[in-house]
Amino acid sequence: MDFPSVERAVKVYRECASAPSLSSASLQKTGDSVFSVHSTWSQRDLERECNIKYRQTHIVTLDSNGQIGDVIDPGTNTELNSEQLVRWSPSGKLKAVLRKIKDKKGDEKQYLEVWNNIAKIHNINLTALDKHGKVYEDGEFGCLEWSSCESQLLYVAEKKQPKAVSYFDKSKEGGSEENPETDAKKKDPEVKGDQFVHRQDWGELLVGKHSPVPCILNLQTGQVTIPEGLPNDVSVGQAIWTPDDSGIVFTGWENEPYRLGLIYCRNRRSAIYHLDLSSQTCNTISITGQSVRSPVFSPDASKLIYIQNSCHGPHMQCAQLIVYHWESKETKVTVDIVQRPTEGRPFPGLYVGRFEQQCWLDNETILVSTAWRSSQTIIAINICTGEVTRLTNGPDFGSWMFCDIKQRLILACRSSPTRSAQLVVGVIPQEGDISCINWKPLHESSVILSDVIWSVITLKPKTEQGSDIDFETIILKPKANSGSQEKKLPLIVWAHGGPHSVFSTGYLLLPGLFCQLGFVIACVNYRGSIGFGQASIDSLPGFVGTHDVKDVQAAAEAVIEQGLVDRERVAVSGGSHGGFLSTHMIGQYPDFYKACITRNPVTNLADKLFCGDIPDLTMTEAGMDFDFKIAPSAEMYAKMFNCSPMAHIDKVRAPTLLMLGSDDLRVPPQQGIRYHEMLKARGVKTRLLMYPDNSHPINKVDAEADCFMNMYTWITEHL
Ligand SMILES: CC(=O)N[C@@H](C)C(=O)N[C@@H](C)C(=O)O
């Protein structure tokens, strides 16, 4: 087949990859019925080989009926180079900015700034204060919270460690057994012999993040304090003020017996804590033995909500919404785990990482984005009754993300496999059906794939076990051929990673790119994906390498049966567990797939058990209970190997491209390197690309673009 040229592929990549992705968006009331929308975006810059960040501002007015009036785009795109966190104060009059700057010597320093509507009014050099290590700005631990009196800022940073010095450092020889008091006079404590002590961190994408502690900056004094009374061996994150600023509430993850990788893993043992700042007493609010996260107070400060799910088993699960009554301390599960959604009760449960800080429509209703089968959707939850209302279900946009709410003005971001992110606003009706919202776009999607159409098909598994659980596949087709029969197109079957994650009907860069270049794409949400009920998730552990494989194959065959695809030109792709599946497909269906392209694949669970930052994944997905002692029997090793792609290596014929991140801690490169070598030793065509300074996602701008071009040339050469 004459595929589009490499030059065409480069052009299409430049167009599609230029789509900005939303980092954050918030509403500020700036006048009677006037609101400003501040959004920060991330966009690939292929020339500078970096992701640039920029801020956009829009003005929204409400008319006399409280409906959306004007939407004004003052065209104020401003590139942001050093902002790490931004938080507006409760009054909206002040803005806190965490900024990272390199000084003249090239050393990074962090500043906490406060701006009013005229200028910068506070500027604290946190690094120079030397009260803590780096401030955390990540999505797992990071926070930046104003006290209600707007005189203090709360954030988390690396706990300051005593300075480790050598026993042979002559400059330290002043203090000695004869004159120990000399040591005591030193400003900071020093420890001899600890220079090379291993300090475990929280793993992939959280490297160097060991022991975060809460920090309080007093804007009047410019001083930072680390509260006393913190629990031992707990990593603090997501900290917020108690309503009267008398204390803080935070999520604490257990460090002992050792840390397991945290990113993409919502099953890490944790608790919600309340620290009273004056008495320095710290109490746990949540029950022990769970994984909890994202504490948020109601506007009237009467209730605290947080998310809870098991700290055992799958890394992503259906969660509970917990309501904690602040005065009475009564705790209630207001939304429970959903095992199997039904036609009558289609709500599939809660699949949420963190609530937005402004997620309250009123003191009884919260707004949240959650996976709902193959779509990300916005729901409203009545936290007294647990009633769930789906607010976004329109056919034209696939997936929605809730951003902010002020009074009844809601800010959201929507996209689809053929339309990049678009900010929209709407007014939630005061009466009647709150899902009747007239959404108004603030801008057009920057990328619209007008010659691609997408759909979602539902499939029933063919295996007897777990066969009452259906699954879905998102299909992208070139519009030109959607109705025609004469020209059969090549197919790429895509498996997502996790395995407990999901392809959502949002903007999907790689599938959209390949579809633009003439391929049919099938993105498979196999059993075990989130968004389909807990029973689906629980159906996979112990059956990886069979259930997930059979579902991916069933999806491929279902698309072929639609008549558009040339069954002789089918490729398979996926990263991480998606790489586990793509290498399984070419081993178990060696004549069906003619090419394989995979990113950081899991190829041998037995080998992975003692490497990588989440050994628990290996045992969990192989159907075993994880224990921190990890003492597997020979039989357990055999089971882990036998459910791995490496067990099928002798059958592989498909030319296989592997793309590895040299810094990957989640799935160490050796998994891909060994698979590549085993193919070479068997004379199977294979190519391995190793991307330095890239980890599990391989998402540095230059590496990501290079991956795509190599994927394209590999597939077009072998289909
Ligand atoms: C929990 C986890 O990280 N699993 C990995 C093996 C994986 O599949 N990661 C996904 C999120 C990926 O696509 O990288």
How is the secondary structure organized here?
Blueprint: H1 6-17, E1 21-31, E2 34-45, E3 50-62, E4 68-72, E5 78-80, E6 83-88, E7 95-102, E8 108-115, E9 120-125, H2 126-129, E10 144-146, E11 152-158, E12 163-165, H3 180-184, E13 190-192, E14 212-218, E15 223-225, E16 234-241, E17 247-254, E18 270-276, E19 281-284, E20 290-297, E21 303-310, E22 320-325, E23 331-335, E24 360-362, E25 365-372, E26 375-382, E27 388-390, E28 399-406, E29 409-416, E30 419-427, E31 440-441, E32 452-459, E33 471-478, E34 489-495, H4 509-516, E35 520-525, H5 534-538, H6 547-561, E36 565-575, H7 577-588, E37 595-599, H8 605-608, H9 615-621, H10 634-642, E38 656-661, H11 670-681, E39 686-691, H12 701-718
Helix pairs in contact: 1-4, 1-12, 6-7
Ligand LAAZK34X binds at residues 264-265, 315, 497-498, 501, 575-578, 602, 614, 617, 666-667, 696.
Keywords: Acetylation, Cytoplasm, Hydrolase, Protease, Serine protease
Region (Disordered): 168-191
Subcellular location: Cytoplasm
Mean pLDDT: 94
State the helix count. 12
* Uncertain runs: none
Q: Which structural category do the helix and sheet elements fall into?
A: alpha+beta
Q: Indicate the CATH architecture of the domain at 452-479 and 487-717.
A: 3-Layer(aba) Sandwich
Radius of gyration: 26 Å
Q: What name is given to the CATH topology of the domain at 452-479 and 487-717?
A: Rossmann fold
Q: Could you describe the largest sheet, including whether it forms a barrel?
A: 8 strands, mixed
Quaternary assembly: single chain
Count of strand segments: 39
From the N-terminal CA to the C-terminal CA, the straight-line distance is 8 Å
Give the full name of the CATH homologous superfamily of the domain at 452-479 and 487-717. Alpha/Beta hydrolase fold, catalytic domain
| CATH class annotation of the domain at 452-479 and 487-717 | Alpha Beta
Outline: globular
Strand composition percent:
35-45%
Pfam families: APEH_N (PF19283), Peptidase_S9 (PF00326)
Biased composition (Basic and acidic residues): 182-191
InterPro entries: 6-blade_b-propeller_TolB-like (IPR011042), AARE_N (IPR045550), AB_hydrolase_fold (IPR029058), Pept_S9_AS (IPR002471), Peptidase_S9_cat (IPR001375), Peptidase_S9A (IPR002470)
Protein name: Prolyl endopeptidase
